[in-house]
Design brief:
The protein is built from four helices and five strands. It is of the alpha+beta class and 163 residues long. It has one domain: Molybdopterin cofactor biosynthesis C (MoaC) domain (Alpha-Beta Plaits, 2-Layer Sandwich), CATH 3.30.70. It has a five-stranded antiparallel beta sheet with strand order 2-3-1-4-5, with helices on one face. A hairpin with a 4-residue loop joins strand 2 and strand 3. It is elongated.
Length: 163
């Protein structure tokens, strides 16, 4: 397999996508934050002292997706046509699953935007809850699925994709 972000001399470069056709593209990423039962119950009840944890995390995820090229050095700037962030409360674990879906029409995929969006959403949850639980653990961040482009559709068999 050839890595596209290296020039013939092995140096990093931004891939030239100018000759590629515009296509509809969508990517979904997911991740999880585990927390104490006390913290989970406060978030679920909307009683966290800092305010609306999931509403704030949703905005953070959307903003993260939009700012991806500012954070990932070789990432192309995309004209995003839609970003959604949703949460699933996993009562038995206790944990919250975040899912970020990004849509665009362009020459390159939106996987990095979806991954950045879900990461920012989870980090915002941590930030808003750290006064109650500093032991929270973020993990399981992965591309769940993508469609469009030259490589076509992909569904990650390791993704949970509940709800």
């Amino acid at each position: 397999m050839k890595f596209t972000h290296f020039d013939p001399g092995g140096g990093a470069w931004m891939v030239d996508v100018s000759e590629k056709e515009d296509t509809r593209r969508e990517a979904t990423a997911e991740g999880l934050i585990r927390m104490s039962r006390e913290c989970f119950d406060l978030v679920a009840a909307g009683n966290m002292e800092k305010g609306d944890v999931l509403g704030t995390a949703r905005i953070a995820g959307i903003m993260g997706a939009k700012k991806t090229p500012d954070l990932i050095p070789l990432c192309h700037i995309l004209n995003l046509t839609g970003v959604s962030v949703r949460f699933e409360m996993l009562k038995d674990e206790p944990a919250i699953r975040a899912v970020c879906t990004v849509r665009t029409v362009g020459k390159t995929g939106a996987e990095m935007e979806a991954l950045t969006g879900v990461s920012c959403a989870l980090l915002a949850i941590y930030d808003m809850c750290k006064a109650v639980d500093k032991t929270m653990e973020i993990g399981g961040i992965m591309l769940a699925e993508k469609s469009g482009g030259k490589s076509g559709n992909f569904i990650n068999p390791n993704a949970n994709r509940r709800g």
